[in-house]
Write a structure and sequence with these properties.
This protein has 439 residues and is of the alpha/beta class. It has one domain: Alpha/Beta hydrolase fold, catalytic domain (Rossmann fold, 3-Layer(aba) Sandwich). 26% of the residues lie in helices and 17% in strands. The protein has eleven helices and nine strands. Strands 1-2-3-5-4-6-7-8-9 form a nine-stranded mixed sheet, sandwiched between helices. Helix 5 packs across helix 6.
């Protein structure tokens, strides 16, 4: 799903968040690798772009043609044993599911992953008109000078005295508001920081590609290159794809937040949109220190069920974004039912911490109904661990948030973006889970 520069410009002008080819897929033309031949229609009757996979699959947007599928049972081990208690889930089922995801989907974090050292580069005590203390923190990777760096911007509410909960937001273009002399952002990627601060939250963000570039042959540089063994020139079949690198990076930022006296590292919510929504779910699955995950419009190989033939498919992901996954993921185009995992298991691996999922009416490519069904199917694990599921198996009305449980869901009117209503519902959900007095 690589997009051309023209596609980037279209997305920017549309005012959407994801600026690296994954945003507004229902509006942007398909990539050349899977574009429709000239003799075939490029859109369906409703204007949704069609993609023609090398497996012969053509994009489906018709619920009547989704087909039947059987999901892996989250509470049955690989050897067929039923999981009936939290101890067995933690000791057996959860580790084997993590292993399957590491081996077959996202790739494992290598033992040689570099050390990250963080330094506060600057502090502005009167940022945002006096509403925040803004710190710019630089993380350096490895031991050699001149290596990769990541910049984290942290906003602290000036009115709060004790350690506060924090929203950690993975961004596509970075925090342009913190760059001296920069023009205001032309797209609503950064959350409503002033609202967060007024509610008693800190807000931190970083640009995901500072951990690893998002494109073909990216392993030749960045964190993946630093982590290779001497003499190694290419990734092994189960080595980390870029989603695993970005998720690992989010955990390294959490390491820094744990050293910051003004924030409570036990109350950190990780936020990601689109491919970063996938990343947020995988980071939350790998790192139980995250207290909440907000996965916005994450779609295929994120919150949407892969076995459901609707919108983007495994075929599309494997052809368009092979670098985001382990090499072993290439076994599954045309064989979705052979995947040993599915999205409901990824959500379940986040248990017992809270997960909030959103989708859009104009973002059929990301299959919002499949995201809802995935959240429902993760419910048994949350209940096993003494938590609350969605509370229903029926999709809610549009723009009505389900936020009473530990899994939250909102199907918003609109496209592939985080809407103001999403932020509003997320804040209410976060209050319930990050502020004990609000429960």
């Amino acid at each position: 799903m690589n997009a051309s520069f023209a596609c980037f410009c279209l997305i920017l002008c549309s005012g959407l968040c994801c600026l690296v080819g994954r945003s507004a897929e229902s509006a942007a033309p398909p990539p050349a690798a899977t574009a429709a031949p000239a003799s075939r229609p490029k859109t369906d009757a409703n204007g949704n772009y069609l993609r023609y996979a090398s497996t012969g699959h053509v994009t489906n947007y018709d619920e009547a043609r989704v087909g039947t599928y059987t999901l892996p049972d989250p509470l049955v081990t690989q050897d067929g044993k039923q999981v009936t208690d939290a101890a067995t889930w933690s000791a057996r089922r959860r580790p084997e599911l993590l292993k399957l995801y590491e081996t077959e989907v996202y790739g494992r974090v290598p033992d040689r992953a570099p050390r990250v050292t963080f330094t506060v580069a600057s502090t502005e005590p009167n940022a945002l008109g006096g509403a925040a203390i803004r710190k710019v923190v630089v993380g350096r990777f490895g031991e050699k000078p001149g290596g990769p760096v990541v910049t984290v911007t942290l906003y602290l509410p000036v009115e709060e005295k004790g350690p506060v909960p924090v929203f950690l937001h993975m961004l596509f273009m970075g925090d342009l508001t913190a760059t001296p002399n920069s023009k205001p952002p032309r797209f609503p990627e950064i959350g409503p920081i002033r609202d967060f601060l007024a509610r008693g939250y800190a807000y931190a963000d970083f640009r995901y590609t500072e951990f690893q570039a998002d494109g073909k042959d990216t392993e030749k540089e960045g964190i993946q290159a630093l982590a290779m063994a001497p003499g190694q020139t290419q990734l092994a079949a189960d080595d980390w794809g870029t989603i695993s690198v970005w998720a690992w990076g989010a955990s390294r930022v959490l390491d820094y937040l744990a050293t910051e006296p003004a924030v409570d590292a036990g109350r950190v919510a990780l936020i990601g949109h689109s491919r970063l929504g996938k990343t947020a779910l995988w980071a939350g699955a790998r790192d139980p220190r995250f207290a909440l995950v907000f996965s916005s419009c994450s779609g295929e190989m994120g919150a949407a069920l892969a076995r459901r033939d609707f919108g983007e498919t495994v075929d599309d992901m494997a052809a368009g974004f092979p670098w985001q996954f382990a090499g072993n993921f290439q076994k599954y185009p045309g064989h979705w039912d052979k995947l040993p995992v599915d999205a409901h298991l990824l959500i379940a691996l986040n248990a017992p911490h809270a997960v909030f999922i959103t989708g859009g009416t104009q973002d059929l490519w990301a299959d919002p109904r499949g995201e809802f069904l995935s959240a429902v199917a993760a419910g048994p694990v949350y209940r096993l661990l003494g938590k609350k599921d969605l509370g229903t198996s029926e999709p809610p009305p549009l723009d009505v948030a389900l936020i009473a449980g530990d899994i939250g869901f909102l199907h918003h009117t609109g496209g592939h973006t985080i809407t103001p209503e999403d932020w509003k519902a997320f804040l209410e959900f976060a209050d319930r889970h990050l502020k004990p007095s609000s429960r």
